[in-house]
Amino acid sequence: AQSVAQPEDQVNVAEGNPLTVKCTYSVSGNPYLFWYVQYPNRGLQFLLKYITGDNLVKGSYGFEAEFNKSQTSFHLKKPSALVSDSALYFCAVRDIDTDKLIFGTGTRLQVFP
Amino acid sequence: DTGVSQNPRHKITKRGQNVTFRCDPISEHNRLYWYRQTLGQGPEFLTYFQNEAQLEKSRLLSDRFSAERPKGSFSTLEIQRTEQGDSAMYLCASSAWDRDTGELFFGEGSRLTVL
Question: Cβ of B104: how many Cβ atoms within 10 Å?
Protein backbone atom coordinates (compact mmCIF):
# COMPACT_ATOMS: atom_id res chain seq x y z
CA ALA A 1 0.00 0.00 0.00
CA GLN A 2 1.12 3.54 -0.70
CA SER A 3 2.06 5.77 2.23
CA VAL A 4 3.97 8.90 3.15
CA ALA A 5 5.74 9.82 6.37
CA GLN A 6 6.46 13.25 7.75
CA PRO A 7 9.03 12.70 10.49
CA GLU A 8 8.84 16.17 12.04
CA ASP A 9 5.77 17.39 13.90
CA GLN A 10 7.13 20.95 13.88
CA VAL A 11 9.81 22.91 12.09
CA ASN A 12 10.99 26.27 13.39
CA VAL A 13 12.92 28.69 11.21
CA ALA A 14 13.83 32.36 11.32
CA GLU A 15 12.41 34.66 8.69
CA GLY A 16 14.76 34.99 5.74
CA ASN A 17 16.41 31.63 6.35
CA PRO A 18 15.91 28.62 4.06
CA LEU A 19 13.36 26.06 5.15
CA THR A 20 12.93 22.34 4.55
CA VAL A 21 9.93 20.21 5.45
CA LYS A 22 10.64 16.51 5.10
CA CYS A 23 8.58 13.76 3.49
CA THR A 24 9.43 10.18 2.64
CA TYR A 25 7.25 7.84 0.64
CA SER A 26 6.58 4.17 0.16
CA VAL A 27 4.96 3.12 -3.10
CA SER A 28 4.82 0.27 -5.54
CA GLY A 29 5.48 1.62 -8.98
CA ASN A 30 6.02 5.23 -9.94
CA PRO A 31 5.06 7.73 -7.24
CA TYR A 32 2.66 10.61 -7.74
CA LEU A 33 3.50 13.02 -4.91
CA PHE A 34 1.89 16.23 -3.69
CA TRP A 35 2.33 19.00 -1.14
CA TYR A 36 -0.56 20.93 0.39
CA VAL A 37 -0.67 23.78 2.92
CA GLN A 38 -3.40 24.42 5.48
CA TYR A 39 -3.93 27.69 7.35
CA PRO A 40 -5.95 27.71 10.62
CA ASN A 41 -9.59 26.72 10.17
CA ARG A 42 -9.19 26.57 6.42
CA GLY A 43 -9.17 23.87 3.78
CA LEU A 44 -6.07 22.53 2.08
CA GLN A 45 -4.38 24.50 -0.69
CA PHE A 46 -2.39 22.74 -3.41
CA LEU A 47 1.28 23.80 -3.57
CA LEU A 48 2.97 21.47 -6.05
CA LYS A 49 3.17 17.96 -7.40
CA TYR A 50 5.61 15.47 -8.87
CA ILE A 51 4.30 13.18 -11.58
CA THR A 52 7.28 12.67 -13.82
CA GLY A 53 10.14 14.66 -15.31
CA ASP A 54 12.52 16.99 -13.51
CA ASN A 55 13.34 16.06 -9.95
CA LEU A 56 13.06 19.69 -8.82
CA VAL A 57 9.46 20.82 -8.92
CA LYS A 58 8.48 24.46 -8.53
CA GLY A 59 5.17 25.44 -7.03
CA SER A 60 3.14 28.25 -5.55
CA TYR A 61 4.39 31.00 -3.19
CA GLY A 62 8.06 30.33 -3.99
CA PHE A 63 8.03 26.75 -2.74
CA GLU A 64 9.80 23.92 -4.48
CA ALA A 65 10.30 20.24 -3.78
CA GLU A 66 13.03 17.81 -4.66
CA PHE A 67 12.14 14.27 -5.67
CA ASN A 68 14.86 11.78 -4.71
CA LYS A 69 14.19 8.25 -5.86
CA SER A 70 17.17 6.63 -4.13
CA GLN A 71 16.20 8.14 -0.77
CA THR A 72 12.43 7.83 -1.44
CA SER A 73 12.03 11.43 -0.36
CA PHE A 74 10.10 14.46 -1.54
CA HIS A 75 11.19 17.32 0.71
CA LEU A 76 9.56 20.73 0.48
CA LYS A 77 11.91 23.71 0.36
CA LYS A 78 11.95 27.47 0.17
CA PRO A 79 15.09 29.60 -0.10
CA SER A 80 13.87 32.40 2.16
CA ALA A 81 11.07 31.86 4.68
CA LEU A 82 8.36 34.43 5.42
CA VAL A 83 6.37 34.78 8.64
CA SER A 84 3.26 34.30 6.50
CA ASP A 85 4.51 30.81 5.54
CA SER A 86 3.65 29.65 9.07
CA ALA A 87 1.02 26.93 8.58
CA LEU A 88 0.45 23.19 8.53
CA TYR A 89 2.03 21.34 5.60
CA PHE A 90 0.91 17.97 4.29
CA CYS A 91 2.66 15.59 1.95
CA ALA A 92 0.46 13.18 -0.01
CA VAL A 93 0.78 10.27 -2.41
CA ARG A 94 -1.75 9.03 -4.93
CA ASP A 95 -2.92 5.49 -4.39
CA ILE A 96 -2.40 3.75 -7.72
CA ASP A 97 -5.18 1.26 -7.13
CA THR A 98 -7.91 3.68 -6.14
CA ASP A 99 -6.63 7.12 -7.26
CA LYS A 100 -7.35 8.77 -3.92
CA LEU A 101 -4.71 10.87 -2.15
CA ILE A 102 -3.19 9.49 1.04
CA PHE A 103 -1.90 12.19 3.37
CA GLY A 104 0.86 12.29 5.93
CA THR A 105 0.31 13.45 9.48
CA GLY A 106 1.44 16.97 8.74
CA THR A 107 4.28 19.26 9.82
CA ARG A 108 3.66 22.56 11.51
CA LEU A 109 5.98 25.25 10.17
CA GLN A 110 6.65 28.19 12.45
CA VAL A 111 8.57 31.11 10.99
CA PHE A 112 9.80 33.60 13.58
CA PRO A 113 10.41 37.29 12.80
CA ASP B 1 -16.30 32.18 -6.62
CA THR B 2 -15.67 29.08 -8.70
CA GLY B 3 -13.99 27.00 -5.99
CA VAL B 4 -15.33 24.11 -3.94
CA SER B 5 -18.07 25.28 -1.59
CA GLN B 6 -19.07 23.56 1.64
CA ASN B 7 -22.04 24.26 3.92
CA PRO B 8 -22.46 24.75 6.74
CA ARG B 9 -18.98 25.83 7.82
CA HIS B 10 -19.71 25.05 11.43
CA LYS B 11 -22.26 22.76 13.06
CA ILE B 12 -22.77 22.17 16.75
CA THR B 13 -25.15 19.38 17.63
CA LYS B 14 -26.12 17.16 20.52
CA ARG B 15 -25.20 13.53 20.63
CA GLY B 16 -27.78 11.40 18.88
CA GLN B 17 -28.90 14.04 16.40
CA ASN B 18 -28.51 13.73 12.62
CA VAL B 19 -26.45 16.20 10.61
CA THR B 20 -26.00 16.76 6.89
CA PHE B 21 -23.19 18.54 5.07
CA ARG B 22 -23.31 19.74 1.50
CA CYS B 23 -20.49 20.10 -1.00
CA ASP B 24 -20.65 21.91 -4.32
CA PRO B 25 -17.60 20.99 -6.40
CA ILE B 26 -15.95 22.95 -9.17
CA SER B 27 -18.49 22.71 -11.97
CA GLU B 28 -16.50 20.79 -14.58
CA HIS B 29 -15.01 18.31 -12.11
CA ASN B 30 -16.25 14.75 -12.36
CA ARG B 31 -14.70 13.39 -9.16
CA LEU B 32 -15.71 14.35 -5.65
CA TYR B 33 -14.05 13.22 -2.42
CA TRP B 34 -14.91 13.38 1.27
CA TYR B 35 -12.21 13.38 3.92
CA ARG B 36 -12.28 13.70 7.69
CA GLN B 37 -9.64 15.57 9.66
CA THR B 38 -9.27 15.55 13.42
CA LEU B 39 -7.16 18.05 15.31
CA GLY B 40 -3.47 17.66 14.62
CA GLN B 41 -3.94 14.89 12.09
CA GLY B 42 -3.84 14.59 8.33
CA PRO B 43 -7.03 14.21 6.30
CA GLU B 44 -8.39 10.65 6.25
CA PHE B 45 -10.21 9.40 3.18
CA LEU B 46 -13.89 8.57 3.62
CA THR B 47 -15.39 8.09 0.17
CA TYR B 48 -15.39 9.32 -3.41
CA PHE B 49 -17.64 9.62 -6.43
CA GLN B 50 -17.04 9.66 -10.12
CA ASN B 51 -20.05 11.51 -11.47
CA GLU B 52 -22.97 9.99 -9.51
CA ALA B 53 -21.31 6.62 -8.83
CA GLN B 54 -19.81 6.04 -5.40
CA LEU B 55 -16.66 4.11 -6.23
CA GLU B 56 -15.08 3.52 -2.84
CA LYS B 57 -15.95 3.76 0.83
CA SER B 58 -13.39 3.64 3.62
CA ARG B 59 -13.94 1.33 6.55
CA LEU B 60 -13.95 4.57 8.58
CA LEU B 61 -17.38 5.18 7.08
CA SER B 62 -19.62 3.35 9.52
CA ASP B 63 -23.24 2.49 8.84
CA ARG B 64 -24.23 5.80 10.40
CA PHE B 65 -22.55 7.67 7.56
CA SER B 66 -24.04 7.98 4.10
CA ALA B 67 -22.97 10.04 1.13
CA GLU B 68 -24.78 10.79 -2.07
CA ARG B 69 -24.17 12.61 -5.30
CA PRO B 70 -27.51 12.14 -7.02
CA LYS B 71 -27.00 14.09 -10.23
CA GLY B 72 -23.26 14.03 -10.42
CA SER B 73 -23.01 17.61 -9.23
CA PHE B 74 -23.30 18.48 -5.52
CA SER B 75 -22.88 15.88 -2.80
CA THR B 76 -24.23 15.42 0.70
CA LEU B 77 -22.69 13.63 3.65
CA GLU B 78 -25.15 12.62 6.36
CA ILE B 79 -24.22 11.39 9.81
CA GLN B 80 -27.01 9.73 11.76
CA ARG B 81 -27.12 9.38 15.54
CA THR B 82 -23.99 11.47 16.00
CA GLU B 83 -21.43 10.51 18.61
CA GLN B 84 -18.79 12.65 20.27
CA GLY B 85 -16.15 10.81 18.28
CA ASP B 86 -17.65 12.22 15.09
CA SER B 87 -16.39 15.68 16.04
CA ALA B 88 -13.99 16.64 13.26
CA MET B 89 -13.52 18.78 10.18
CA TYR B 90 -15.19 17.24 7.14
CA LEU B 91 -13.41 18.21 3.96
CA CYS B 92 -14.73 17.95 0.44
CA ALA B 93 -12.50 18.01 -2.62
CA SER B 94 -13.03 17.72 -6.34
CA SER B 95 -10.93 16.99 -9.38
CA ALA B 96 -11.14 16.64 -13.14
CA TRP B 97 -9.32 13.40 -12.99
CA ASP B 98 -6.49 12.93 -15.41
CA ARG B 99 -3.63 10.54 -15.00
CA ASP B 100 -1.17 13.32 -15.66
CA THR B 101 -2.48 15.75 -13.09
CA GLY B 102 -4.38 14.40 -10.16
CA GLU B 103 -4.42 17.23 -7.65
CA LEU B 104 -7.51 17.70 -5.57
CA PHE B 105 -9.09 21.08 -4.94
CA PHE B 106 -10.43 21.38 -1.41
CA GLY B 107 -13.25 23.38 0.09
CA GLU B 108 -12.94 25.25 3.38
CA GLY B 109 -14.41 22.36 5.33
CA SER B 110 -17.37 21.83 7.63
CA ARG B 111 -16.47 21.64 11.29
CA LEU B 112 -18.69 19.39 13.39
CA THR B 113 -18.83 19.58 17.16
CA VAL B 114 -20.91 16.93 18.93
CA LEU B 115 -21.76 17.78 22.53
Answer: 26
